[in-house]
Amino acid sequence: MRRSRKLVAVLAATGLALAGAVGSVLLTAPSAEALANGLALTPPMGFNNWNSTQCRPEFNEAMVKGIADIFVAKGLKAAGYQYVNLDDCWAETKRDGSGHLVPSHVRFPHGIKAVADYVHSKGLKLGIYTSAGTHTCNKAGFPGGLGHEQTDANTFASWGVDYLKYDNCNNQGVDAVKRYTAMRDALKKTGRPIVYSICEWGKNKPWNWAPNVGNLWRTTGDISPNWDRMLSIIHANQSHASAAGPGHWNDPDMLEIGNGHLTDNEQKTHFSLWAEMAAPLLIGTDLRKASQHTFDILSNKDIIAIDQDPLGKQGVVVSSSGGLVVYTKQLANGDRAVALFNETGTAHKISTTAAKAGLRAAASYSLKDLWTKLTRTSTGSISATVPPHGTVIFRVHAN
Ligand code: GLA
């Protein structure tokens, strides 16, 4: 694997001149083993409608355009959010006479290309969804991509789609690596840069194979806006840190900030730990109805910078005992993002040290609290009293 990835990189760098020289056999063989699409060098940021609308009628053209408008008007685009993604239920239940997917006439009366054009006109990108099965997950029976990979990839490319989430329902027991690789290759053949999001819920240990196949892969089943579910997803996702890197990310699912009954501390934990784990930041609330508080959390630039750090390292657990967990994430400039996470229902002091968090030896360290924005100096201790279900996250700099 490693050798062929290197070869692809070399071939990509040397380009067409080499293509003529070595012929197509050498060029096609390694490309079947690597993604190398140059996309998602930092975790994708954007929006997906599923967590807020599921399949309800309010998921339609007006919503998608409205979200794009809000991305611009409320500074989310400036903060780095880019992809406006459609989830399940955007299609008609039948393909057309020539086997092509058809957008729902009710939800998207002007088609998907018109929506993509609108989103692009705002300087944003459009994502779409289908399943690596005969049908998508919704019981209405929308057609899936299995056996239609190239036709559907071509359709998406012709509409100007920039991102595909490829789900796992109705997969007929066909090998997952085969199914997801087929769509990877079909997307590549379109020639359009399309971020490829694998959504097989961690069922086939994607952290072992998906870095060569997709730009991101779900590590778990679906998130829901409650504490227990979020906690179990955090526990599952944190184990796969070594698989993450520029162009290939663990995906603990979309954000629930602004949804359900998560407390303020829980929502801040959600955002802090998704950033600490270099997760995709896909907003899952209907921004047309969101509170200023929701915008404030989603717009925390210091925390977004942790997520989007170009080194592309996922944070790892330094210590964990009795529900008090310390993570550290290596950053490009030598700093570390240190998160002190209190899983318990009562406030606790959580402590670690700069050395344990992987910082170089120094006479002093600056600790910037990325929620309060206060900076303090320490000779090595990193500690805070953390509220129930809360997270204190510091950017630590060795002076
Ligand atoms: C699956 C996915 C979800 C969502 C739904 C849509 O459950 O995991 O993220 O896309 O399907 O039906």
Architecture overview:
The chain is of the alpha/beta class. Helix content is 31%, strand content 20%. It has helices at residues 2-14, 16-31, 50-53, 61-73, 76-79, 111-121, 149-159, 176-190, 227-237, 264-276, 292-298, 301-307, and strands spanning 45-48, 83-85, 125-131, 163-167, 195-198, 216-218, 249-251, 281-283, 316-321, 324-330, 336-342, 348-353, 365-369, 375-378, 381-386, 391-398. The strands form three sheets. It has an eight-stranded parallel beta sheet with strand order 7-6-5-4-3-2-1-8. The chain has a six-stranded antiparallel beta sheet with strand order 9-10-11-16-13-14, covered by helices on one side. α7 links the parallel β3 and β4 (163-167). The longest helix is centred in the first third of the chain and has 16 residues, at 16-31. It is globular and about 70 Å long.
